[in-house]
Design a protein that fits this description.
Elements (H helix, E strand, L loop, with lengths): L1 E6 L3 E7 L4 E8 L6 H12 L5 H4 L2 E6 L2 H14 L5 E2 L20 H14 L3 E6 L2 E7 L5 E8 L1 H11 L19 H28 L4 E5 L3 H4 L8 E2 L3 H15 L1
Parallel strand pairs: 1-4, 4-5, 6-9, 9-10
Antiparallel strand pairs: 1-2, 2-3, 6-7, 7-8
Helix pairs in contact: 1-3, 4-8
The protein binds adenosine-5'-diphosphate, ligand PAZ and potassium ion.
Cofactor: NH4(+); K(+)
Keywords: ATP-binding, Coenzyme A biosynthesis, Cytoplasm, Kinase, Metal-binding, Nucleotide-binding, Potassium, Transferase
Protein name: Type III pantothenate kinase
């Protein structure tokens, strides 16, 4: 069985794939200074809760956009499993069906997303990842990663606003009844939820203008479902896109 681990800035998501489907998936909080021992306790308890996956795991693939945690995870995996993990990074990009122009300046989660989206569409596509950062990654008809946009994620924007103002509360991320907010909560929801759907749609419009073709659009990340109902371009949401991309990377490297 394959264990895929996606270490993001807010959440660490990991799942078990039995070569046919994802049989289990977990999401834990990212705490950048937790130690290898602490993560070992968490992994051991979750992975042995119903079925003993620790025994069954024979392949591991990891992406981390938190470099500090990669050390703790390497130590944890070394102690818990007997297989050597595949760590996604620039060294393996030449073996993938993707062209990565600037390998040292793109998050490994975006490489995994690109891998899964390109496998799914096989033509021009944009992945919108609603994580701590909101990212759009566009892949060409022939698998070249053409470029990335990075903006503050929805929760990141709200946190920054509430942290820097005296009177703004944190709000639920749902669309308000009207763009003309009649109270503080609706005003914030208007600015953040409706505003961000415009941001996403506008970036896709610009992409279409620049490339002369509308990309297929797929969304992922913890907050994808907030905007998918109101964005004019997001029709497909796949919460497992990053893990799926990691699985495809692992498969591709295995065949090499
Ligand atoms: N199932 C969920 N429902 C609602 N919010 C979620 C869910 N999962 C994650 N989140 C929130 O979505 C945000 C982005 O999560 P995620 O996509 O995992 O970010 P990252 O990849 O940066 O760690 C975080 O604030 C997280 O708390
Ligand atoms: C853009 C990101 C912060 C997104 O991270 P996330 O929101 O998924 O936690 C991450 O992909 C990243 O750190 N990218 C840049 C990495 C680099 O320049 O090497
Ligand atoms: K992510």
């Amino acid at each position: 069985m394959l264990l895929a681990i996606d270490i993001g800035n807010s959440n660490i998501v990991f799942g078990i794939h039995d070569s046919e489907k994802w049989v289990n998936e977990w999401r834990i909080l990212t705490v950048a200074d937790k130690t290898a021992d602490e993560y070992e306790v968490i992994f051991r308890s979750l992975l042995t809760n119903s079925i003993d996956y620790v025994e069954k795991v024979d392949r591991i693939v990891v992406s981390s956009v938190v470099p500090q945690l990669l050390r703790a995870f390497t130590e944890m995996m070394d102690s818990l499993f007997s297989v050597k993990p595949l760590i996604v990074g620039p060294e393996i990009y030449p073996m993938l069906p993707l062209k990565v122009l600037n390998p040292y300046e793109i998050g490994t989660d975006l490489i995994a997303n690109s891998m899964a989206a390109y496998k799914r569409f096989g033509s021009l596509c944009t992945v919108v990842d609603f994580g701590t950062a909101l990212t759009l990654t566009t892949i060409s008809d022939d698998g070249e990663i053409l470029g990335v946009s990075i903006a503050p994620g929805l929760k990141t924007a709200i946190k920054s606003l509430t942290g820097n103002t005296a009177q703004l509360p944190s709000v639920h991320l749902t669309p308000p009844p009207s763009v003309l907010g009649e109270n503080t909560v609706h005003a914030l929801q208007s600015g953040i939820v409706l505003g961000y759907s415009g941001l996403v749609d506008h970036l896709i419009d610009l992409t279409r203008n620049e490339l002369g073709k509308l990309p297929e659009v797929i969304a992922t990340g913890g907050l994808a479902n907030v905007l998918s109902p109101i964005s004019k371009y997001i029709r497909v949401v796949d919460q497992q896109l990053t893990l799926e991309g990691l699985r495809l990377i692992s498969e591709t490297i295995e065949l090499h």
